[in-house]
Amino acid sequence: MKSNCAINISPRGVISLNKSLLQQIRKHTKELKLGFECHKKDKRILLLYITDHPNYTFPEGGARKDKRFTRSLVEDGISIPARYLVEWNERANAWVGILNQETSTDALEKSLKAGLSNKRRKK
């Protein structure tokens, strides 16, 4: 999934809609009162949608604190900070976010490659 839209979740429990996602949402609605859900069995998937019965209200800047939700992610094995890449899904009639996290093996491999290329440059 390649998207400029994202939802970021910080260790302090702040859920932030990035600028691109805010722009997309504002094309559909002026208010940031939305439905916000996480897939119950797989918290690697989030939904954000326009509804008459919103359960989340984001302030103008697109960030709000929800420690309970953040804690539930950690309890289900999601590492924080977390980033969900978001795209509009016509069938779901919602913005769908997919967790974008490297595995520790991938991060280690990138680090080792970066270290090797730095050593080559110094010679």
* Tally of alpha and pi helices: 3
The N- to C-terminal Cα distance equals 38 Å
Q: How would a crystallographer describe the biggest sheet?
A: 8 strands, antiparallel
Total strands: the figure is 8
Mean pLDDT: 85
Shape category: globular
Give the helices and strands as they follow along the chain: EEHEEEEHEEH
Low-confidence stretches: 103-108, 117-123
Radius of gyration: 17 Å
Q: Strand arrangement, largest sheet? A: 5-3-4-8-7-1-2-6
Share in β-strands: 25-35%
Structural class by sheet pairing and helices: alpha+beta
Can you characterise this structure?
This protein is of the alpha+beta class and 123 residues long. 31% of the residues lie in helices and 32% in strands. It is built from 3 helices and 8 strands. The chain has helices at 19-28, 67-75, 104-122, and strands at residues 5-9, 14-17, 33-38, 45-49, 56-57, 63-65, 82-89, 94-99. Strands 5-3-4-8-7-1-2-6 form an 8-stranded antiparallel beta sheet. The longest helix is centred in the last third of the chain and has 19 residues, at 104-122. The chain starts with a strand and ends with a helix.
